[in-house]
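[User]
Um, tokens okay?
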Amino acid sequence: MKISQLKAVIAVADHGNFSEAALELQLSQPAISHAIATLEEELGIPLFARGRRGAVLTPAGERILYHARQTLEHIEMMQHEANLHKGLHGGHVRIASFRSVATHLLPKAIAQFHSSFPEVAVTIIECPAFVDVENSLREGRADIGITCLPTSDEFEVWEILRDEYVALLPPNSRIVGKQITWEDLAAYSPVMIPTTPCGRILHNHLKTVTLSMNTTTDIQEDSTIVSMVNQGLRAAILPRLAAVPIPQEVQVYSLPVPLERVMGVAILSNALQVPAVFTFLEMLRKFDFQSLAKFTYS
């Protein structure tokens, strides 16, 4: 079944004859007759009763005409939506991100984009970890992802932010000097670290730089970990952005051997992006995430 056949049915029904329908569609009368005849053959029923007075719809033809009009209206709506997306008068951008970036950085970037393209909808898909972000891209549930680098070759990525891991000590801690030692941290054994893949990066780092660190991952939420530290119960190591907002009483130190998580924007390699997503990506390339993160830390 072709769109040209549906247009022919509508034109013949509107004019009551093949010749005027042919003029409207700028086709020959035999072409109109052939379009109708082949459609009737495909459907297995006559759509028009042909006679001296022209072409009159059969009862079945009247029902088919209704559906033909509905189909063409839906096709026009599809074309209209596509044109809106092309002109950025509409469209939808889906961003998958883990919580700390979704909370502290993405809203500012989305607000900047919205000021220029208010008719484009932007949705944040909050994920527990960067592994879930990448799965959202693979499964087509997200157009753009914020993940930890490096990642696999299936993604095109670029770096946006380096986030330092910091030691958080209770308010009543007594540290000699401005630099914390592994021994200082070990005094609060077990030290809390996150359960996410970012926590595994930290765990592997600790195994290479110290032999005396006893850690625990029994608490999942970053905010709960920070609250535990603030109440003087334990010490913790977290990415700084994940720990924000850090209570003023909590003592914050760089690690004796520094560690950063490198975050970047990721899209599936060779993916064909709709204009709204492409334009949002161009904005992200110019957005200063590092400066915004430093402002968030303060």
